[in-house]
Amino acid sequence: MKKKIMLLLILAFILVMPTYFPKAMSASDITARKECPNVELALAKTDGGLDKIECYDTYDQAKTVMYTDPREDLVLIENGMIIDAKYAVVDYDVSYTNIPSGYITVYDSDSSSNNISYIRSNQPDDAVVLDYNYNTKRIKIKVAGLTGWINKYDNGALLYDIIPVVWAPTAQYYKVVGNELRHYMPGNVFGTKGESYWTIDTKPDMLTADTKYFSYDGHYFYTGIKTMINDYKNNTYQNSINPNTPYYNYYQYLSFRTKTIYNANNINQYINRGTGNSTTSKLYNTGAAFINAQNKYGANAILMLGIGINESGWGNSTIAQDKNNIFGLGAVDNNPYLQSGSFNTPADCIDAFAYSWLSYGFLQPGDWRFRGANLGNKAEGLNLKYASDPFWAEKAVHYYYELDKMFDFQERKQNQYTIAVLKDNNTVYAKKTPNGADIDNETASNTSRYYKYQTKDSAVVVLAEEKDGNGKTWYKIQSDPTLTPNLSYTNADSKSNPRYEYNWNSFVYVPSDNFTKVVIGTVVNNKPNVDPGNNTNSEPQQPEEPKIPVSTVVSNASYSYQAGIINNLNAGLETSTLINSLTSKGALAVVITKANGEAKSGRLATGDKVTITTNAGSETLSVVISGDTSGDGSITASDYVKIKNHIMGSQILGGVFEKAADFNRDGSISASDYVKVKNQIMGG
Questions:
Q1: From CA 316, how far away is CA 583, in angstroms rounded?
Q2: H helix or E strand, kind and range, residue 575
Q3: Mean pLDDT, to the nearest integer, of 187-199?
Q4: Helix 287-297 and helix 264-275: axis angle, to 10°?
Q5: How many domains does the chain have?
Q6: For 422, how many CA atoms within 13 A lie in the half-sphere containing its CB?
């Protein structure tokens, strides 16, 4: 009897123990310490605190000791602010109100005025710290492939905070879930703003499922963030899991100078699925406009669509609704609505985007924005100059991937292009024939060779290989600039009227030695296994719409599907939110009722029923709200008492209410669930 009482006392003690969540010191906390008159060397602790190690007269003295000391989590503090750290991320989740440009400028060195790109917080808001210049107060960062320097202040506004890695539990990461690659993007490095993810590809061969990988370029992956930072500082990738086989996302490095296999109807099907068949979306019924613009002006329809969805929120943004501007054209960061352009129709906007912004802009070698004719990342491609969001390209990629998946990846299976990327930043000129004449601009008064590649990882479409008279191999590629039949630049420009159409039969040559093939495809001499065609109403190439099971709809909406149950729903979720979420992922109809069959509206509760209809059939699932063991849709004292009693064995929960008791969703009901419910109720 004494043993039983003792066991119950121990269990009760475990249940009432508060859960400790370490919280990093705030900027004001650090300022208040005032441990040293000049520079302090301190140890950042896992509990979020700081231990003073020593005071130094100068930054250089402190930095030397920091890098010779074997301890990893060291930081340097001056004037109440962390100014450097051995392993750190920079959190640029700041207010841009006082920043004139509305973004953070990235420079090519610690003192140069030459800006190479720009960034702005847009989830995630972190980059890794590689170096710090005490004199110029610039910090060297790496984010989305871009390495550069940023100022500490702009117009008096602080641009970033340095966060030691030990204080940053939720830096961005990649993970294979099922057979798909996801990029997880936390709202901030402290884990207080939740996280989202973008599915961007099927599982790459080098990655293992359910493992967290760190990468700030999307090419080389690490299982430890400190190992990654060390490699970045030493300008190597030797300690990544794939040092000799960098990953290149097909859609991210696919040239805009390609044609999709999908037709207007396929595009409309995908848009309707994404918008819940909304006729008010400015993307509604634009499939033909995308295909027409592709065929006339040489810009892949689905790549354009992905940008349009991302920029306009599926055609529902204010700029899209008020101005028919679905690409955010002209929408600068400091005043996007006022500066954005207006168009008579969405089709006019699509044409203008394909011709003026892409064909005679971002895709035209010689234009100041050209860094490769692919989406790229923040170091090359369109993303470098088009958008301040470092992950703008990946977000557009997500939509291309999802559309391709909707039709069983027929594009990748039947129409995959061979992609090669430039090996380094050395300039390479395109030729009219293997080792032949350069391609000059007819509008120039001299023979300056404008058609050149000079940005590492710029992507080209390889259509064939040919040898010159000396036996050297050249890649026959699809031309990036719009060229005349004799392979010279046209006299047209972005404002030409009438517009000069892209010549799909313009092929040029680059030396194979300067490029690396990263994707092997099925397209030869611009002729895929399935001809995309020019007829926007052509049906023979239309893939059969795949059957989408209810389980897929639920999983794609970021909920959990189990036999007869929809799980991983949070308390407070509204019926309208769940309906919109499921229909946006392919549900044709969603009906929600109470357990007794009565109509249900407002807040969902454990035990409610959801009938989901897709083109594969219908299923009725029971709702499980995590923590809601009472079935009232809320988490209250009643719920933690029920979970406690279930653990103690005095009142066993069953069915969906037992599943709701697994608050932390680890597959079991334990003291951890009870404590987490208690903390949520108490606001902890």
A1: 16
A2: helix 575-583
A3: 81
A4: 130
A5: 4
A6: 24
- Domain identity same for 267 and 400: yes
For residue 290, which of 353, 344, 340, 376 has the smallest C-alpha distance? Answer: 353
Position 8 pLDDT exceeds 50:
no
Domain identity same for 347 and 437: no
Provide the pLDDT for residue 563. 80
Structural domain including 479 reads 426-488+502-519
- Using CA atoms, how far residue 425 sits from 159, 226, 379, 463, 682, in Å, is 30, 28, 11, 23, 56
Q: Is the Cα dihedral 147, 152, 158, 163 positive or negative?
A: positive
Give domain status of residue 104, yes or no.
yes
| Ranges assigned E (strand) in 34-179 | 39-44, 50-56, 74-78, 81-85, 88-91, 104-107, 115-119, 126-133, 138-143, 146-150, 153-154, 157-158, 161-164, 173-177
pLDDT of residue 449: 59
Q: What is the pLDDT of residues 34-93, one digit of tens each?
A: 899 999 999 999 999 999 999 999 999 999 999 999 999 999 999 999 999 999 998 876
Q: Are 394 and 454 in a shared domain?
A: no
pLDDT value at residue 60: 96
Q: What is the CA radius of gyration of the chain?
A: 28
Residue 337 banded pLDDT, cuts 50, 70, 90: confident
Residue pair 361/367 in contact (Cβ under 8 Å)? The answer is yes
CA distances to 54, 241, 290, 366 from 211, rounded to whole Å, are: 38, 12, 38, 43
Domain contains 382: yes
Pick from 390, 414, 438: which residue ends a domain?
414
The percent of residues above 70 in pLDDT, for the chain, comes to 90
Say if 325 falls within a structural domain: yes
285 with 379, same domain: the answer is yes
Confidence of residue 336 (pLDDT cuts 50, 70, 90): confident
Distance of CA 157 to the CA centre of its chain: 27
Residues 398, 443 within the same domain: no
Strands 565-569 and 452-453: unpaired
Beta pairing class for 74-78 and 39-44: antiparallel
List b or e across 167-200, with b for residues whose CB sees 16 or more CB atoms inside 10 angstroms.
bbebbbbbbbeeebbbbbbbbbbbeeeeeebbbb
Here the CATH number for the domain that contains residue 660 is 1.10.1330.10
Regarding whether 454 and 398 lie in a shared domain, the answer is no
Q: Which of 162, 129, 135, 165 is nearest to 148 (CA)?
A: 129
pLDDT of 172 strictly over 80: yes
pLDDT digits (tens, 9 = 90+) for 469-527: 999 999 999 999 999 999 989 888 888 888 999 999 999 999 999 999 999 887 655 55
pLDDT in tens, 298-324: 999 999 999 999 999 999 999 899 999
Cα–Cα distance, 615 to 497 (Å, whole number): 46
Output the CA angle 28-32-37, nearest 5 degrees.
125
Structure tokens at 353: 């985007």
3-state secondary structure of 309: helix
